[in-house]
């Protein structure tokens, strides 16, 4: 029994003002789950990360679309140049178009399928030396000469 009282005396702490000893009750904390504050902090962090990431994804998508469009226009220009060389056409020679807007002779032989920017097909250049134009975004998607 004395050991029990000695154990309690060690588990007691002295009151800072009164100087008396009081028993510290050790109780088991049986917490399960998260508190509302913890959940709100996590939601705020996720919202902050989303606010930073979403505009960057939009910019990356626009940049990828623009670069793909410019690459398609380079392919069109290269195919027309090779077609002109193979058919002995001069630089100012007219490029013949069919009703779909694609060049006759270029599409099946030099380009498998006439490309498009999104759902809009490219405008075929009028002459061999002319630059292809993107009909979907003529000011933003420009092929540098």
Task: Describe the protein in words.
The protein has 145 residues and is mostly helical. The protein has a domain of 80 residues. It is built from three helices and four strands, in the order αββααββ. The protein has a two-stranded antiparallel ribbon. A hairpin with a 2-residue loop joins strand 3 and strand 4. The protein is rod-shaped and about 105 Å long. The termini are far apart. 12% of the residues are buried.
Keywords, please?
4 strands, rod-shaped, two-stranded antiparallel ribbon, single chain, mainly alpha, 7% strand, 145 residues
What layout of secondary structure does this protein have?
Blueprint: H1 2-11, E1 12-14, E2 21-23, H2 36-86, H3 106-109, E3 116-117, E4 120-121
Q: How would you summarize this macromolecular structure in one to three sentences?
A:
The protein is mainly alpha-helical and 145 residues long. Helix content is 45%, strand content 7%.
């Amino acid at each position: 029994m004395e050991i029990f009282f000695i154990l309690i005396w060690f588990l007691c702490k002295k009151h800072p003002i009164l100087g008396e000893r009081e028993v510290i009750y050790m109780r088991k904390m049986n917490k399960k789950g998260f508190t509302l504050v913890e959940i709100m902090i996590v939601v705020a962090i996720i919202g902050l990360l989303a606010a930073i990431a979403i505009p960057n994804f939009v910019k990356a998508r626009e940049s990828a679309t623009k670069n793909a469009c410019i690459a398609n226009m380079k392919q069109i220009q290269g195919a027309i140049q090779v077609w002109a060389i193979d058919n002995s056409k001069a630089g100012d020679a007219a490029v013949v178009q069919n009703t779909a807007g694609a060049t006759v002779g270029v599409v099946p032989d030099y380009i498998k399928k006439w490309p498009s920017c999104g759902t809009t097909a490219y405008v075929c250049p009028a002459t061999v030396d002319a630059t292809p134009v993107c009909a979907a975004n003529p000011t933003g998607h420009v092929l540098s000469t």
